[in-house]
Amino acid sequence: MKDMLFQYLKNYTNVPDEALKEVIEHLPVRCFKKGTILLEQGDVSSKCYFVLKGLIRQFSVDTDGNENTSNFYSENQVASVYNPQRSHEASKYSLVCLEDAILLDGDLNDETQMYAKYPFLETMVRKMLEEITSNIHDDYADLLSFGPEERYLALLEKRPGLAERIPQNQLASFLGIRPESLSRIKRRLNPLK
């Protein structure tokens, strides 16, 4: 399974394969059951996960007790809410496994030591974060400029198969619409179902 991570990381560096494999061998692989809370809103985060298999939901609970889904992380994605500039602040989000998951479980407290031992890591991680940030900006722009149906269609196009794995109420929350509206959109797009 670590081959998936190797292929992912190769997109961000041109270091010799042996050096990259050595880094990957330091990362523990862990299995988590569906429903496992990886991070609770209000806790301080020091973990970073790479999804080898499974699905993670990122959400927050507002002052009225409503859950607001802000992201889903599936295979070949990094799931983290860690911010080194605010490393001791409480997380505004929770992370929970929506499916049984196999994750690479990185401890961000080891980041400095890993950068010292493998200097190429810092540049590689910066490139990864730039791409992740760019994707977040694109998704936010879609949320602001697209109507509900366009947001749903954009999700289907950008992340094929993901919508079928997510409970309707959580998918609707992620799209910024009510579950009933999502049902109407689905019926309109697939009248035979």
Task: Characterise the protein shown here.
This protein is of the alpha+beta class and 193 residues long. The chain is 42% helix and 21% strand. Strands 1-8-3-6 form a four-stranded antiparallel β-sheet, with helices on one face. The N and C termini lie far apart (36 Å). GO terms for molecular function: kinase activity. This is cAMP-binding domain of CRP or a regulatory subunit of cAMP-dependent protein kinases.
Just name the CATH architecture of one domain.
Sandwich
Instruction: Please give the alpha-carbon distance between the first and last residues.
Output: 36 Å
**Quantity of strands, as a count:** 8
Q: So, the CATH homologous superfamily of one domain?
A: Jelly Rolls
Number of helices: 7
Averaging pLDDT over every residue, what do you get? 90
Largest sheet at a glance? 4 strands, antiparallel
Helix content: 40-55%
Alpha-beta content class = alpha+beta
N-to-C series of helices and strands = HHEEEEEEEEHHHHH
**The CATH top-level class label of one domain:** Mainly Beta
Q: Low-confidence stretches at least 5 residues in length (pLDDT < 50)?
A: none
List the helices and strands and how they pair.
Blueprint: H1 2-10, H2 17-25, E1 29-32, E2 37-39, E3 47-53, E4 56-61, E5 67-73, E6 78-79, E7 94-97, E8 101-107, H3 111-117, H4 120-145, H5 148-158, H6 168-175, H7 179-189
Antiparallel strand pairs: 1-8, 2-7, 3-6, 3-8, 4-5, 4-7
